[in-house]
Amino acid sequence: MLIGLTGTPGTGKTSTSELVKARFGYRVIHLNKLIKEKHLYSGVDEVRDTLVADMDKVSAYVSELVNDSDKITVLDSHLSHYIADIVIVLRASPDILRERLSHRDYSQAKISENLEAEALDVILVESVEWCEKVFEINTTDVTVEEVATNIGEIISALLCEDDGAVIRKYKPGSLDWSEDVF
Ligand code: ADP
Ligand code: MN
User: Fold this and answer.
1) Which ligand 1 atom lies nearest to the CA of residue 8?
2) How far is CA 9 from CA 66, 128, 159, in A?
3) Which residues line ion ligand 2, judged by CB < 5 Å?
4) Which of 8, 15, 81, 102 to mutate to test the pocket of ligand 1 (most atoms within 8 A of CB)?
């Protein structure tokens, strides 16, 4: 079973997925690293200072990795909702996101672009459009440990095919940060 862990940069995908791996033993693929290492990109976006992923290559590579096993695989990437049918979207208020991203060597423009994307629910909207099941976790006022616990709860429910309660608990759409940027 492939579970995408998506969200705007800084929402906590990588740190949380590392903890999920340590605590529950699920396999985690850090997709950005894989894209770089396996050359799954078609070019470089100079303006955004990122690699442009070749999504056909990425999808094929991930399918190959996961199709041979029933193991749970968590895909850590802001692109994972293009690949997985089940996704967990991590969210963080723009204020908190600004604080978290300030520790990175991002340009002001790149930080602003990410804050706006979060305020406008860009990744959530894409996820709802692309995926069968979408769960949302607000990481604003909770620790990485608590977020990992939430993810464990969602995955356990999916595994025992009794996910009604978690679907209600992590239903997307309750957050509104549209007035919080600018
Ligand atoms: P992403 O992989 O989504 O870009 P990271 O996992 O790299 O995000 O987290 C970005 C920063 O925010 C890191 O410094 C991390 O320690 C911090 N962080 C992530 N999740 C939380 C959280 N729930 N509470 C507090 N800080 C967090
Ligand atoms: Mn990351």
Assistant:
1) 3
2) 24, 18, 28
3) 13-14
4) 15
Residue bearing the CA closest to ligand 1, atom 12? 100
CB 51 within 8 A of CB 31: no
Q: What domain count does the chain have?
A: 1
pLDDT tens track for 139-161: 999 999 999 999 999 999 999 99
Residue 12 Cβ inside 6 Å of ligand 1? The answer reads yes
CA 56 to chain centroid? 19
Over residues 22-69, the pLDDT tens digits come to 999 999 999 999 999 999 999 999 887 889 999 999 999 999 998 867
**Letter for the amino acid at 76?**
D
Residue 138 contacts by C-beta under 8 Å, 6 or more apart in sequence?
Answer: 91, 92, 175
Indicate yes or no: pTM above 0.90.
yes
Residue 29 is inside which H or E element, if any? strand 27-30
CATH number at residue 105: 3.40.50.300
Query: What is the span of the domain harbouring residue 46?
Result: 2-181
Cβ atoms of 27 and 155 closer than 8 Å? no
Of ligand 1's listed atoms, the one at least distance from the Cα of 78 is 3
